[in-house]
Amino acid sequence: MVSLSKKSPEERLNICRKYYRAGFAFLPLLWLINAIWFYKQAFKVESYPQQAQIRTYVIRSAIGTLIWIIIIVAWNITFQLLRTKMGPLGDFLTFVYPRGYY
Amino acid sequence: MRSSVIFVYLLLSILCVYCSQPKRIVDQMYISFDHARYCVRRLNGTHEIGCQSSASGNSGRMYMIDNDEEFNSYLMNTKLIDSSGSFIIVLNVNLFNTYYVDKLITSLSSKLNGLLLYLKSTPSRPEYFSHDDQCPNHRYSYYLNQTEIINWNSKGTGLFFRSFPFPIMLIDEEDDYKQLIKFYRQFNYSQSSSPTCGLELKSFQNAAHSSKTCIRRNDISHSLIDLEETFCDPVGGLNIYSKLPQSFIIIPKKRQPKSVILILTTTDSFQMFLKIKGTTGGAQQPATSLITFLALAHLIGQEQNEFKQQDKEIIFVTLDGDALDYSASFKFMFDMINGSFPIGNQNEEPIKVEHIHSIIEFQSLSLTDKLSLYTYPSSLINQTFIDTLVHNNPMIIPMAVDSSLPPASSQIFLRQTSSLSFPAYILTSTNQNQLSNHYYHSFFDDPSTLSINISSLEYNSTTEFSQWIKNIVESFGQTLIESFVGIKKNVTIKQEIINNLVYCILKNINCPLIHNVTNQSTGNSFDSSNETSLPFSINTYPVAATPTFPFVQNILSYFLRDRIYDTYNLNETTCKQYSNNDSFCSYTYVGGYAPSIMSEQSFDGYCVRSYIRSVSSMSPAFTIDNYDLSQTTYPAWTESRWTTISLRLFVIPTRKHEIITLVIGILLLSVSFIVCFILRYYTNISLLQPSSS
């Protein structure tokens, strides 16, 4: 387990930055973990020079996570409601067909 | 140490011996009915019909309704209906019609979780039991645009073509009924506070919505998952045709117009309630027509020397799949119009619509004293043929000119040719626009409706029924010879042959007849269907292991064989050599069916030269590229797949019992927690830490 208290502030900033940048590859979970893990470092611990940068990364990761949550929930609701009404397209998008039901 | 081990061994072996009938608890909880009939789901281009249960079965409190008074008192008993969340209604089979079923559905709505029908005993079967429409196959009839509809099957309920959201099963064995009623009387009282019987019906069907959706889902496979799941199969079997192996029209010789006569019958039926290894019905339709058809084929084969003197070909055709919207007839006409009839040898000149002289069909025959002959259209029929037929057999009554045709495959033949090319003659048993069959397309259509006592029927028993068939077939054969060959001849067929056909088709397919007309390996394939009658049900593609098709193929080809070969004493290798030289006919080496052989000498084996072809009878809807299955040009029926079907009875305990069971369970749970805690506290055993000292 990586323990942030044992790392130097530059290393902490490095990890946070890596998570932030990697999250752009359609990986919202990385942003979520980034926001949660570095929350304490960004806001609760006494300030050190890299904290401002970590703070921006955490806030942006949180915003990114929120956007992704909205997109996923919206698509989920659309698919559930319109799957049968879409006809052949609905069937092409389905991965596992419900047996016995439309 | 060793003695204790030996002692434990002895103890275990003694226990094993005494407890050698281990009973699982689940066996003691449920009573299973293995011989119940069930209803399945079928789909056409736009709708689904039939029944569906949930994947783990539909269960509910059992309530038995035997007659009309009990039905009405049940519906008014709101206290009883409110006492349980779901019901399985056990209904007398006499009450299974639209009135009672609709009333149950509207009164109980979502509480109705299943229907179980029962038949008290074989003699108490209802007088009419048909769930086909009142006008069968009206969706694809010849009379689509006419307002006047004739209800040929007026007692039909049409329930087969409805979609039920719950499973329906039927118990037709008397032992099952007695067991059911025993438990019901033992447990059920009208108060809701005593333990009651419950039933669980499981008949989960894989397919849904319509053939179009189902076939599309069959075809889509996501490459990550290897196994493709098939949800439904298209309906279709084999269309079989055969003729006398006389001269063949080989290209470039031209076929004369109006030189082919088709004789048609069907080999399928359907029933709303299926059973694995159970009777399928179909004795009046299509077995009677099939027996007449095969006997007529034998008669034509017998008189082949006469038929060789004229130039018309008589082709015997069986159609499989016409019970559901005439799929097989559509396929046959599709093949004919596209030049692929007959298939097999490309050198044989195809038979097209202009080559057909007329079609003769045997449809819905029952043991009646009068038969009706329907003919259409009046402009093309040959009145002399009809007059000769009626003269030879006074039982046949010709119907009025241009009267409406009963449900028959000929309707599609006429429709696809706009009735401009050839006439159709349909022989059927109807009385005043009503089919004589009370059990049309139902499993009750068994040999008892033909006055045959099936348990005492032997291989060569002469029954009223087989004599009736002999009468019809001889007069028909005589008429065909008079009309096409031009000579008056009294033809006879041996009663034994018809008796054997009746026995094989209605009682036991694994009969001496089929073994005499097939070679060793084909004959052995019938051993697995010992003591079963010929099954008449919906066949699906890929063709299942039904014995119907090999049976019809082998018997039809043998009856129409080239009888010159009966006089040759050949062995198997010579027979094979003949087949290498002839690409039109097939040659099989068989034991020989004695009643059919006319020559005085008898040999150990005979080489049979015959002409037989089989084509898939799946509707053209499934074979045409890019055909939209929701179109109505061709029927598109499919049958869903299913895995397990089960019917189980169990006891629903009272509310008090259930609460006590739950409380005891929770107590046991907490007691076990307390015991473990105490053990840990008062002992020094710790499993996680390494042992010290």
UniProtKB/TrEMBL annotation, chain A:
It is found in: Membrane. Keywords: Membrane, Notch signaling pathway, Transmembrane, Transmembrane helix. It comes from the Eukaryota. GO terms for cellular component: gamma-secretase complex. The chain crosses the membrane at residues 20-39, 59-79. Its main location: membrane. It holds the Pfam family PEN-2. Belongs to the PEN-2 family. This is Gamma-secretase subunit PEN-2.
From TrEMBL, chain B:
One of its GO terms (cellular component) is plasma membrane. Keywords: Glycoprotein, Membrane, Notch signaling pathway, Signal, Transmembrane, Transmembrane helix. It is found in: Membrane. It is a single-pass type I membrane protein. Its main location: membrane. Residues 39-207 form the Nicastrin small lobe domain. GO terms for biological process: Notch receptor processing; Notch signaling pathway; protein processing. The chain crosses the membrane at residues 659-682. Residues 1-19 form the signal peptide. It holds the Pfam family Nicastrin. PANTHER family: NICASTRIN (PTHR21092:SF0). Belongs to the nicastrin family. This is Nicastrin. It comes from Rotaria sordida.
